[in-house]
Amino acid sequence: MRRYGLYFAWVVSVVAMLGSLYFSEIRGFEPCKLCWLQRICMYPLPLLLGIAAYRGERGIIPYTLPLAVIGGAIALYHTLEQKIPALARLAPCTVGVPCNRDYLDGFVTIPMMALTAFALIIVFLAMARREPDEN
Question: Which residue windows are transmembrane per the record (predicted)?
Fold first, then answer.
């Protein structure tokens, strides 16, 4: 599993990027300010992790891991803001779509999906940091 951690992180980042583009460009969901911040952290990852996975370069992990951690922290806050109405009143979005708007109207929200993607990327990158076991 450690040997393919970069590949798995890359796959998750590609799916997350395509999913966010699907929601905004095909479904017409306008991204809020926090969604844009999460995209800033996610969109470089498919390119960086794809090149690193192809070349087998684990040296990219110290550069991509902070993007995933920062994006995950934003996604966590965004998820909590949607689930706990009092948080939305503390620092409301003043421009564009309100950050506490739930387009999917269910338990699973778009920020929760982003949080899951960032968490998986963090786990796969942490696994890839270690040398593969010699057989």
Answer: 6-24, 36-54, 60-80, 107-128
101 contact partners, CB below 8 Å, separation of at least 6: 32, 82
What backbone torsions phi and psi does residue 75 show, to the nearest 5 degrees? -65, -35
**Torsion of the alpha carbons at 88, 93, 97 and 100, rounded to the nearest 10:** -10
The whole-model pTM stands at 0.88
Q: Give helix 44-55 / helix 61-83 axis angle, nearest 10°.
A: 140
- Length of the chain measured in residues: 135
- Note down pLDDT in tens along the chain; length 135 residues: 678 999 999 999 999 999 999 998 998 888 888 889 999 999 999 999 999 999 989 999 999 999 999 999 999 998 888 888 777 677 666 666 666 667 777 778 888 999 999 999 999 999 998 765 544
- Calculate the CA 96 to chain-centre distance: 21
Q: What amino acid occupies position 1?
A: M
Q: Which two tokens stand for residue 128?
A: 């890839």
